[in-house]
Amino acid sequence: MACGGFTIADLLSTLSALGVVVSMGAVGFDAVASRFTLDNTTRTIAMTLDRARVTAIARGHVVNVTFGAQKFTATDMAVASGAGILAAGTVPGPLTVDVSGTASFSPLGTVAAPVTVTLHRNAETRVVRVSITGQVDVQ
Predict the structure, then answer these.
(1) Contact 40, 78 (CB under 8 A)
(2) How far is CA 49 from CA 72, 84, 130, in A?
(3) In a domain, 123, yes or no
(4) Which helix (H) or strand (E) holds 86?
């Protein structure tokens, strides 16, 4: 008397089909995660620049946002060395950053010269611009 059930061939074919579906999803997930990292880092930099501007206006001090190799720092220039750091962050390794200069916000919230921060990941690019009036825009 035969019992109803699945054969080994049924199980193997089902598992192999499932493996193909999962591997296709993993490729799609990598692209989404990559784009998320780029967008998230862009927003973090824009928020740091906005916070620096607001702090410069609120405190009546000059606040600089500087960019180095894979990092950025917002510093209140009127506070003693080391204690004036308002924010610091890193740029994840797969991203590269090009910056046109230091964003130095005056007590009025303006900058001496416009600043452009460009983030790259493969063919994708995001741009954060600080206008001379201190307005921060993400493109």
Answers:
(1) no
(2) 10, 15, 8
(3) yes
(4) strand 85-90
What helix, strand, coil percent values describe the chain, rounded to 5? 35, 30, 30
Is the CB of residue 112 less than 8 Å from the CB of residue 100?
no
Domain of residue 123, CATH code = 3.55.40.10
Tell me whether residue 85 is in a domain: yes
26-84 pLDDT per residue, tens:
666 666 777 888 999 999 999 999 999 999 999 999 999 999 888 999 999 988 766 78
Look-up: residue for tokens 């046109």?
A: 100
Cα angle, residue 72 at apex, residues 56 and 109 outer, rounded to 5°: 20
pTM score of the predicted model: 0.78
Say how many domains are in the chain. Answer: 1
Those residues whose C-beta lies under 8 Å from the C-beta of residue 27, and which sit 6 or more positions away, are none
Which residue segment(s) compose the domain that 82 sits in?
Answer: 9-138
Whole-angstrom distance, CA of residue 67 vs CA of residue 65: 7
Note whether 128 and 45 are within 8 A (CB).
yes
Tell me how far apart the alpha carbons of residues 119 and 134 are, in angstroms, rounded to a whole number.
Answer: 20
- Structural tokens at position 15: 């598992």
